Structures are given as structure tokens and as C-alpha cells.
Please model this.
Amino acid sequence: MTNTTIHSDVTHHFLRPKKKFPNVWCAGCGNGIVMGALIRAIDKLGLEKDNVAVISGIGCSSRMPVYLDFNTLHTTHGRALAFATGVKMAKPHMKVIVITGDGDALAIGGNHFIHACRRNIDITAILIDNKIYGMTGGQFAPTTPGGSRATTAPYGNYEKQFDVVKLAIGAGASYVARGTVYHSTQLEKLIAGAIAKRGFAIVDAFSNCHTYYGRMNREGDAVAMIQWFKTHAMPIEAARKLPPEKMKDKFVTGLIHETDATEFCDEYQALVDRLAGKEAGR
Amino acid sequence: MTRKGNVKLLQGNEACVEGALYAGAQFFAGYPITPSTEIAEGMSRLMPQIGGKFIQMEDEIGSIAAVIGASNAGCKSMTATSGPGFSLMQENIGYAYMTETPCVIINVQRGGPSTGLPTKIAQSDIMQARWGTHGDYTAVTLAPSSARECFSETVRAFNLSERFRTPVTVFTDEVLGHMREIMTVPEEGELPVFDRIKPDVPHEWYRHFEITPSFVSPMASFGEGYRYNVSGLTHDQDGFPTAVPSEIKDKLDKLRLKIERYLDEIASFRTEMMDDAHVAVISYGTVARASYQAVRMARDRRIKVGAIQPFTIWPLHEVKLREMLGNCRKVIVAELNMGQLVHEIRRVAPRHTEVFALNRYDGEVMTPHQILDKIREVL
Model:
């Protein structure tokens, strides 16, 4: 991957014209930053638009594909990875990217998430992680921190949280990274690395929902929330050298886990080839 | 491989697999469930042999999702399940209706509700086939009654789904799925095989949901340069979400009209001894076999009775059915449920016709004697 943009006007090359804008997101929403990082990453990888499928579920994040000039599939709540599995198997040469949210991927879609990790199918999941259900008006998610308020946790959230990174590593993903909408250059690199990776790749992109999470938890406006990412993110390289007590109110960013394992579609093709060889040799 | 015509001893489930391959199925996703599992097992063996794709998903919701994804990527796709799995699939089946994605879903019916009777027969999902998912849509459901018909109706299901860009369900049952029968597998070319219509316009002219005079839109696949959007949100002809009342209505009308306009092509019936019949027995699936036997027994007793078997349960061809009923004053609807299709028959039957329900819902098959008794009772 080179670090130069192929198209001088990435925005107009990768976004769809007419009727789609203004977008549905609140002013200041981090989703647009993730979308920008995604198209720049795709541009730098030199991917053909025809060869990219972007698939999403339901939620604020999942409205992204409609703006993108690729093969786009806006599916049902939580099921994007299952739809994507069908697309990828049918056309293994295509780059399949799933845009999902923390509620979409980890609550209703939790089962598909762990099984996509387990199969190590060559899909890139970009999980826009804003700790809340935004589209439905601020209910708590499997990622909402303990004690935080949400419209269905008016006295503070008393549930435990998923750690997306640990979950994905435990389930068998090949590439597990975390970025934030403050660190947009790093996010772009992590997404590019995820797309280039042969196998299941997940980028947990911390984003701000100032409209609901921020307002209900007095964390301020979009700027204040995005600045919080700046002050609390700890790159993995630095985090590894720090004692646990210094990491207490920090979160790790960067490429946290990467392994090389056989990819699902490759395994399947090997089976098809083996059976064809057997038949030919008969 | 059995692409060439030959005589085989096949289960209904196996015949569905053979039929799917004959129709050109390239993708199967499923989840184990009794009594449909042999279909997934057959697919897991045969799909890799022909270079097609098989995947066992983590649940039925994922199975139908993968099927719809693969269909949008250009594969003729199918799944198979039974009651509980069919219930789980409903939301995504609605997505397939809305996004006009061709796919075939086989439901090997068992007793319900809930876990019900995994190893016993029922026909109690007939209304779910029509109204299972939320919203307005027009369903296409086929019901074979033998291994031979499991084969041919699966082929027809693929053809209709490709022709009209819609999901098609094939409703069999536990007995039909597991019963073995001798059948001649049709030769290549003996049954028609239809592939979806591809666009013939330049990429920038393509509209994925174009309202054409036939209401059926040509369908490009992912990766072919058209880069369209697909959404379960109510959408315009380009696939982008809309809230414009006229576009909403046009979309829903399209879903209905593309099926209703071609009812003559979709509807299929078999009748026996209906010419001079005063009493008609309407039944489908396994029960139809008992009905033919009962009709013959009744004819031996000089009772003027005939049988009607709809292969296309949904949409029910009301005009044709009324025509077939002709001068029958009495109609018996025999079903393995507490009465489902009978309500539809009551709705469409001519005014002078009295409609009787014959139901069995104890997990056992309907016997010819039961039907014969009912014929005598209503005379």
C-alpha cells in the first residue's frame, strides 16, 4: 500500500451523487469521519469500485452504504455479517466490507459476529462503537459503560460490558484493531490494513454520540467527546510498556492482534479442487 | 450425479435436492432441523462436487440471510428448514420480498406450535406461508405430494423465483420428506429451467427496481459494474430509501402486480374425476394421495365425487378454482391442521357451494377411509 491518494477528489469519486445528501446523521456525528477514513483507505489500496461490496445492518452506522458508490446492501438488524457471508462465498474475489454498530454487531447480531470470527471468512467489519443505540433514541447497548445513563437505564446502567477486542480475539478473528474518530489518519491505516488482510478483520472505531450518550451523561458536545478520545487513547506500543495502574482510565488503540490462519473461502475452494481432482483421477 | 434421466429410489427430501441441482442451484445455506436435515446433508455432499457453495450457518436467521446475500451476488440460492426454523426466518424472508431477491425456501412441515412434533406430520404452516412476515406482499407457495413432485416443484420454485424476482416457498411435510419412492429423474431439457433476466442497458441507465410494463425488473448482480443499492427500507426504483407517498405506493403495487398479473402462469392444479362430480375433495401435499384413493373408493360405491389438488397454494387462483368446482354443491377441504386453507376456500367458493372442513392434527396421516367417511357424511 502506498500512502498516496490515487484520485485527487476522493469524495466525489467514491460518494454517490444526487438525492442522498444531506445525510441522516446529526451534526458533529463521528460516522462521517469513519466514512471518510474508509473511502481514503479504499482509494489508497487501489480497489476497483465494482469489486467492493459494502453491507450493513440497522442503526445510524448502517445508513452509510447508501452514500457510497459500491455494491451496497442495507440489510436487517444484526444480520449484516450473515448476508455478507453469502455475498463473499458467492463472489470470493470481491472485497466485502461490513459497516455495523455496537448494538447491531454485539447484541442482536452477536451470534453472527462470533461465528464470522470463528470461520475466519475474508470480511472486514468496521464497528462504529458509540456505546449507545442512537437511531432509536439512546437506549443502553452491550458496550454502555457501567453507571452510564441511557433512556432505558434512567438510574444508570447496571449491566456488564462486552470488550469487542477480547471477544473478537477469543472467537478467532485474524485482525483486530481499535481506532477513534479523533485519530482519523490512524483509523484510515487500520481500515486499510483490515481490508488488505486475508481473513476476518475487525476495526472497533470509537465514535461519539453527543446527541444521546453525551447529553445524558454530561459529556458535552461533539468536540468535547472527540477530545476525550484524544486524552484517553493509548497506542498499543506504549500501553504494553505501562504498568496496569497507569492504564486505568485509558483504552488501547492500534493493531492489537494479528495472526495468519487459513481463510474460509480458500478452505472451501481447496475442497472443491480436491473433489474435482478425485473425479478426474477416477 | 444424476443430471441424466434415470430411475431412482428417492426420499422427498432427496428429490428436493436433485430438483434444486437440476434447476441450477449454486448456493445452499442451512441449519440442522428435523425433518428437513437430509436436504442440507445432500447439499453438503453435492454442492462442492459441482463447484457450488454449501454453508452450515449458525442459525436459520443467518441461513436465509446468506441465501439472500448469495442471490444478490448472482447465485441461484436455496435453504431448507422446518417450522421453528421457518419462524426464525420470517424477518429476512420479508427482506427478500421487499428487495425482490430470488430464492427458494423449503419447509418440511412438522407439528406445532413451538417445538411441537419434530418427527410427525402436519400442514399447519400454510397460513404462515402467506402471512408469516410483517407487511403487505404477495407470497408464492408450492405444495408437492410425491417424490416426483418434490423434484418438479423445486425446479418450478426456482423458475418462478428467478422469473418474478421473489422468494418462493416449497411446502412439503415430514412423511413426504422421509418417504421413499421410485421416480424417473427427468432428462436434461425435459423440464424448463429459467434464469433471471439480466439488464441490457449501460450501467448508468440501470435501475435495480425499475417499474417495467411487466412489473418485473431485470436483475444485475454484485460485481457486474452496476453498483446498485439494496435496502429493506421502502425504496424508489434506484433502491434508495424514500418517504414519497407515490413512490411508496408504486413499490407495494409492484410487489403485488408482478405476481397477480401472471397468476395463470403460476397457478397449477391437478384434478381427478371432476367432470360429473357433485362433491369435491380439495387437498394438497401428502393428504392429496389419500384423497385420490378415497375418490376411487367412493366412485366404486357410485358416489359422484372428484378431487382437486392445488400445487400452487399461494396465490390461490380463485377464478380457476371456481371454474373447477363447477356444479359441485359440496366441497370437503381435507388438511392436517385445525383448518387453514378451508377459510380461503370458503371465501372463494361459489355461493351455492357448501364447504366442509376435514381436519386431523394428532401427528398422524389422513387415511382414505377418513375422507371416504366424510364424503358419505356430507352427502
Notes: Chain A is about 40% helix and 20% strand. Residues 264-281 of chain A form the longest helix (18 residues). The longest strand of chain A covers residues 251-258. The beta strands of chain A are 52-56, 71-74, 95-101, 123-129, 132-133, 139-140, 175-180, 201-206, 233-235, 251-258.
